[in-house]
Amino acid sequence: MFQKSMKPAKNIFLTGEINCGKSTMINSILEEFNIEYTGFRTIPYKINDIHMGYAFKSLVKGMEETPPISVKLKGMKPFKITETFDYFGTLTLEESLKSKEKVILLDEIGVFESEASRFQKIIRECLDSDKICVGVIKKKENSFLNEIKSRDDVLLIELPKIELGKHAKIREEVSSFFKFLVNDNNRGMRIMKKLNKRIAFVLTLVFSVMIFAGCTGNSKEGNANEKTITVEDQLGRKVEIKGDVNRIISSYYVSTSILIGLGLQDKVVGIEKKAKNREMYKKCAPEFLKLPAVGTGKEINVEECIKLKPDLVIIPTRLKKFIPDLEKVNIKVIAIEPESLDSFMQTVELIGKATGANEKANKFLDYYKNTLDKVSKLVKETKNRPTVYLGGTDNILKTCTGKMYQNYMIEESGGTNVTKDIKDGYWANISVEQLIKFNPEVIYVVGYAKYTPRDVFNDERLKGVDAIKNKKVYTFPSKLEPWDFPTPSSILGMLWILQNIHSDVYSTDDFKKDAKAFYKEFYNLDVSDEEIGL
Hints:
Blueprint: E1 11-16, H1 22-33, E2 37-47, E3 50-58, E4 68-71, E5 79-80, H2 82-98, E6 103-109, H3 117-128, E7 132-137, H4 143-149, E8 154-159, H5 168-183, H6 185-190, H7 192-217, H8 219-224, E9 228-232, E10 238-242, E11 248-250, H9 253-261, E12 268-272, H10 279-284, E13 293-295, H11 302-307, E14 312-316, H12 323-327, E15 333-336, H13 341-355, H14 358-380, E16 387-391, E17 398-400, H15 405-412, E18 416-417, E19 427-429, H16 432-438, E20 442-446, H17 453-457, H18 466-469, E21 473-476, H19 490-501, H20 508-523
């Protein structure tokens, strides 16, 4: 386990509903102190004076461009431009960290950067630095936003949506805290706890008045909705779930695995096909072997689902065409698409919230994030990034594209995925000539493949490839479950890659220890070296 460190707060974020005065308060405090600062702002993106979305405005000298971060076309939902964050945004904050300014403005951190892994990483570096970060954070929920809000070194203040003049007391406290941080950083740290309590007291008074007014005005409606939650699935659909979720159908191996990790196997009444082939089910949820098979990653049996009377059905987004048929009979459906590190964490968070397993979901996500941080720090100690190729199910010429979760696993673990620039679909077929041209230093064969590393070594067409010449073709473990799938155990897949290509910073013994601890912690399983593929 990796413990969260306790740090004094030196970063301030305001949150709240739209137009409650967050940016206005931050800007007025910065003006009050007449202090130089760097960072970025989010501004309207206009074409011919027509509001088309939002843009990124760098406050770094020489970076006057304002590239869009989202664009909304008529009749369509806004679409985010992740590249703006990952390239222009990352460069802005890299320069901000190097600058002489003590303060970095982050206005605002929201939902558009949910898949911008490079930008998220530099945000973390800013918060970890000796700079003071002040900014605005969206009142939304996803894994990245929740991570920032829960940091020990972040003072988070939610502004109620009232007349701006009534924010004066809160502004006074924030300004006071900011003054100590700017003028005497060490002294500010020492009095942080006292100021936190004062601010919390002011906010409690404000919220108590608001809540009391709301309750006296509409108490009956509050009671009626007491057990209702609303989640947003990975199609962007708002799904309202009333009452407890006690009967769950999962037509997708990924969501079924997550349900086991969250301790919800007793509530599952229907699952995907081929359950009898899964060793993990035999060990952790043997009852699954007798459950009705309702579908696959490509289809779902709606009639069978209806017979099982579920409170919730979980499907992959590619099965969205079946949602209307299920909703016609009042069955709640959430769709998931965990094909990147961030979207996988969002999937776990979504399932945890929809099923009432928030505590276990958060516990796993904390472990996941801490392990990713550990991997990132170890990768920084390495001197090179070996080129890696992942062979898929049918033959060695089937491989993962840059859109797949496996791509992120390789890249995060200190390798370079030679097929990362293939963006068409998910699993892709390439030619022998392409594989020879890629010339990977390491080849992995998925554990569920119809061929073995021996077959790859014996393929005369590929004898000139470095990985084959140097005997670096491996089966991707484990025997319990595939670690290259976007499931809870995928974090072990990243650790395995790390020990395979960077054993100088992370040994096989280190990996064994971490893998066995993971299964004990989240599945109460004692596993052998053989079961984890060693």
